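Lay summary

Proteins are chains of building blocks that fold into shapes. Our project writes down both the chain and a compact code for its shape. Here are two examples, one after the other.
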Amino acid sequence: MSTTTEVIAHNWAFAVFLIVAVGLCCLMLAGAWFLGGKAHGRHKNTPFESGIEAVGTTQMRLSAKFYLVAMFFVIFDVEALYLYAWSTAIRESGWVGFVEAAIFILVLLAGLVYLARIGALDWAPARRRVVVKTTTVSHTNRHTQ
């Protein structure tokens, strides 16, 4: 048997998988094209979300705090998943695993405290602190006689 035949025989399952995947994608695209709606109207391609029509422009600037909060959510959400996986294997990990998880939680809390202290989680505008200096003025009437 030649090496080419051996490679094809060895990887036949992968080749069948690729052929079926591409064929299924083409079948779904063709089905959507044939069975899809053909109605055209004035408001057909306008965005409509949650029952509210779009107002204004899409070129609106957003604060970076939206992205910061999204990143914090993803980070803490992934860490919560890690703790869930740890809790399912708590009997196998024993006290060593408990200490490791406690250290992990303490590091998370330290990060959360740090974020709160630098104001990364504060949505309110920065408070302006106006320092009012009070000076005492003494009015002495000095008349020389």
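And here is the second example, written the same way.
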Amino acid sequence: MPLPFHVAVPVRELGPARTFYRDVLGCAEGRVDAGKPPRWVDFNLFGHQFVIHEIPGDDEASIAGRNPVDGDAVPVPHYGAVLEIPTWTALAERLKAAGVEFVIPPRTRFAGAPGEQRTMFLLDPSGNALEFKAFADIERQLFAT
């Protein structure tokens, strides 16, 4: 099993971002900064250590640009996770039920090609772009050319 990655991202306000990652995405909360008020929170993002850091007024926590990928304007930068199809499908349904507005709605990309995948893009409350994707055969398709 690969080791989990660690990523930390800036958020403008910790409260709305914390609620989003915990309650909307369903990530288990880990450590929380002991400061009063706290400035960062760890989450379990599908087995990876994901940290939000409050940087008030930070305009860097947003999309810098977009690149065309299989007919979509993909936000850059972005981060997320590769999931098993049942987990991806459950997350897509959870997000739809929560009324999340997608940048790119759940869809299949590269249909019929070696890298065929399911993908969806959304923004957190600070404008950070997230992508969640799934493959029928992760080991064979993730890096397929």
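What can we say about the second shape? The beta strands are 6-11, 28-32, 40-45, 48-54, 65-69, 72-76, 78-83, 102-109, 117-123, 129-134.
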